[in-house]
Amino acid sequence: MGSIWSASAVTPAATDRIPVDVSSSGAPSRWTGQNVADAASRIGVTLNALGSINSNTEIDLANGAFVTATITGSLTFTFSNPPATGQGMQFVLVLTDGGSAVVTWPGAVTWTGGTAPTLRASGVDVLRFYTSNGGTNWYGELAYDEQSIDAGAILTGTIDAARLPAGTTSAAGALELATVAEAEAGTDTARAVTPEGVAAAIAALSPGGSPGGSTTEVQFNNAGVFDGMSGTAWDDTNRCLTVTGATVTTSKPILGLSQTWNAGAVAFTGLLFNVTNTVSAATSKLLDLQVGGSSVFSVGRGADLGAGPEGGSSSSSARFIFWGSQSMIVQTGGGSTLRPFAVTSGLGGTGRPALGACVISSGYLGFGNAAANSTPDAYFTRDAAGIIAMRDSTTAQTLRVYGTYTDSSNHVRGSMAASSTAVTLAAETAGTGADNVPLNLNSAGTSPVKAGNPLGYQSYTVATVPSASAAGAGANIYVSDESGGAVPAFSDGTDWRRYTDRAVIS
Fold it and tell me: What was the pLDDT predicted at 36?
């Protein structure tokens, strides 16, 4: 038998030839297709090893259809030398660390899952590619691992949930539905809750699924269940809360609030109550503190403060009305009369307070008859810097300083009075107050007491002079009808004697 190759052809090596049997007659017996397939399976296809690659790479199928490569950098693959159109073929690509960098595939590749598969950053992926038109179109698939498939491409079949990633709060995936008991327990962090489970969990929060207590009572956690808070009532129409405390025998504040402020540049507010005053009575209050139903302290809508003694009536209350930062009006008693008093934010001067009370130049400190609730009729006011005055138009004024005082009928006092015609400095007594109280004018040290004008003595007749002993030695008077003519006289402790000759007046 001669060679099956032409004379000019290169004879293949023995391992690459397809063997034939020769019969006894010398006629060759050729292999069947099965014989050829079996031989290919035993011999294998050519290995096309690309090694480690990190730049654009051509897969030349003339070098073999079993391709291996390790990815070490981003690259783009191209395919070349497939069989001619009309002949189908496939090749295998084994990639190591294919997901460690960006791999771009030829545009002619259509993936079975709709998108290119996600490759392992560390590990091996096996891919297959098919063509029947000389590489105009390629079809690719990930050979033996899960891949992302567009949901729209799944038309029939079932999903193996075990092969899906678990869903979390930050990633999509498969979730198991919680049972009603699991929803009520509220401890499972992996299962999804159904509407039935949510409804059951809510119903389990209170006995029978209903709030505790009576209608309008505020709810609280009573050993794990809802219960009504005694003494509370919520008015939902007006959005008002009423709280009635218990009778207590130890200090139990009905409301205890606390907060920590810790920022030097922040102006904090501890309590804020903001009223939109569309219209209200002038006596409306922002705050009213009461004892036994009677107000002891209140804050009116117009920045006035009201205060009164515990259990006091309206006639013993007081009001403080602040106008801006400069003045305050004080009202005592239950009437409408206001007693003005001024407050200033700075008095100035060394040693004076930065904040205090004073009478401003256009105001006064006035006092009235409180029993009659009258307007003020005695005033202190400012005349000038460092000068306090008592004045009221043309009305005479008197300032009194008491040594003793029991009542208006029993006292010892000194007074300084001024009218349009005289200024009087006097010692006055009444009732049980000691009589014959001297009026002393004293200078410091040995300096004399001086009069700026002629000094006049009280005038008497001889018949009306007071007792010389009672007046005391050194007292002086003027006797208008003395026998020798009008003359000043002095007391020696026993008699009144004339200045002129020391003779007893007669």
Answer: 64
